């Protein structure tokens, strides 16, 4: 599986490089795994502009400008916050495309309304609407939820340049 992800990441970087586009990430539940995967590949500095690991609510607010009242109203794991994370990463970087990821990886932290395995994604582009994706992976275990979230973040980044 890891080799498949590396191959996808390499192809993604090449596609972005060919179009002269740069990527930023704003990661919560994935803790920087998307940025780590992308930067594992030689030459990634031509595409990966920066990554934000905004694990705490305060980090989301202080580092990428997610409004504290938005987090208070909807919770960190929500569509509005995922969108704001992507938009904030774009606003606080020189990237052309940014992905935001927030979720409940488990094994604790889930509720009936926001169960373990719930992950929200935002994808923002300098020109265009911010896209949202919600996934409910289920309680697959922390490692598997995070890996699935990385896969879907790559999917969004792939779709953004098609």
Could you explain the architecture of this structure?
- The chain is an alpha/beta fold.
- The protein has a single domain, classed as Alpha-Beta Complex (Maf protein).
- 44% of the residues lie in helices and 20% in strands.
- It has helices at 2-19, 33-39, 57-64, 68-74, 79-91, 142-159, and strands spanning 23-27, 48-53, 97-103, 118-125, 131-136.
- It has a five-stranded mixed sheet, with helices on both faces.
- Helix 1 (2-19) runs parallel beside helix 6.
- Residues 11-160 form the CinA C-terminal domain.
- It comes from Microvirga arsenatis.
- This is Nicotinamide-nucleotide amidohydrolase family protein.
Topology:
Elements (H helix, E strand, L loop, with lengths): L1 H18 L3 E5 L5 H7 L8 E6 L3 H8 L3 H7 L4 H13 L5 E7 L14 E8 L5 E6 L5 H18 L3
Parallel strand pairs: 1-2, 1-3
Antiparallel strand pairs: 3-4, 4-5
Protein name: Nicotinamide-nucleotide amidohydrolase family protein
Organism: Microvirga arsenatis
Describe the structure concisely.
The protein is of the alpha/beta class. It has helices at residues 2-19, 33-39, 57-64, 68-74, 79-91, 142-159; strands at 23-27, 48-53, 97-103, 118-125, 131-136.
């Amino acid at each position: 599986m890891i080799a498949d992800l590396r191959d996808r990441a390499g192809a993604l970087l090449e596609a972005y490089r060919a179009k002269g586009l740069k990527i930023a990430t704003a990661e919560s539940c994935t803790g920087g795994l998307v940025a780590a995967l992308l930067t594992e590949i030689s030459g990634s500095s031509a595409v990966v502009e920066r990554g934000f690991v905004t694990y705490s609510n305060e980090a989301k607010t202080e580092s990428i400008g997610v409004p504290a009242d938005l987090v208070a109203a909807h919770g960190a794991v929500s569509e509005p916050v995922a969108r704001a994370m992507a938009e904030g990463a774009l606003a606080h970087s020189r990237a052309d495309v940014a992905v935001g990821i927030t979720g409940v990886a488990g094994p604790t932290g889930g509720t009936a309304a926001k169960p373990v395995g719930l992950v929200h994604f935002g994808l923002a582009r300098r020109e265009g609407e911010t896209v949202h994706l919600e996934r409910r992976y289920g309680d697959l275990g922390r490692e598997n939820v995070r890996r699935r979230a990385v896969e879907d973040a790559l999917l969004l980044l792939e779709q953004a340049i098609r």
